[in-house]
Amino acid sequence: MRVQSLTLVAASAALLAPTTFPGAPLPTRPVPRVQPPPGHQPHADPVRAGRSGARTGPVPRSRVGPALPSRVRRGAETEAGARQKESSGEEPVRAEDLLARVRGCDPVSHGRYRTDAGRPADTPVCGRGDAVYWKADLDVDCDGRPGDRCNSGTDPYFSSATAYTQSDGRPLDAESLPYVVVPAPSDIWDHREHDVHGGSVAAVVYGDRVRYAVVGDVGPRDLIGEASYAAAQSLGIPADPHGGGTASGVTYIVFEGSDVEPLEDRAAAEKAGERLAREFVDGD
């Protein structure tokens, strides 16, 4: 749980802070308020639960574990395919269409996850076609390169590392890159066995919104339901690492065998995600 015991202390210190003198550092810009969509359910306890434990990373991009059958990397799109899509004027995939495909659950995990420490372990990872998915809450992951919104001052459990890194070797930027977090491999589920890795493409659904992201971090082995600051913000979910996130209603769909390179290419993730989501919706 992301503990907020410092919140009242920080607020009291702010009231007693002296006037800023010339040459003093400028204060951090205020975080804009995000108007959540209808039906938003904030956490009853506005602290992140159990996310402060040890994390895995950084992890090499090369696959670790049992060898998987070779397949075409599904994150790539041919030029001809892109032109055909543009000329067809196809509408974006709707949230309701994706949710219809994941209404049931054929479990691929050997057990169930907690969404927060102390909560019941009642969330399985399910599979359908070339995708795995789960339905959970969204806790805000601010880990990675520090910025105005994500740093040790805004998040007492901030880590400057992410399990997967950019093409230049630097940690990911949670403020600008929508990414999702997968649990560390365990007896419950090993994402590597489903060809899910750093850079895999994910569709994240909340309310009537569909946003595309990549797998960018690895979290505790017994918890599920976490995404980056940018992912939360794109979905209209309050992104404050202290009291943001939402208690339920988020569906994460990760496309097996997909890959975005470089991992930090947000536009490439959105393009590949839309295509893969369309294939998923139109599949048998």
UniProtKB/TrEMBL annotation:
Keywords: Carbohydrate metabolism, Glycosidase, Hydrolase, Polysaccharide degradation, Secreted, Signal. InterPro entries: Chitosanase_fungal (IPR009939). Residues 1-23 form the signal peptide. It is found in: Secreted. Residues 19-95 are annotated as: Disordered. Residues 74-95 have a biased composition (Basic and acidic residues). The keyword Hydrolase applies. Residues 24-40 have a biased composition (Pro residues). GO terms for molecular function: hydrolase activity. This is Glycoside hydrolase family 75 protein.
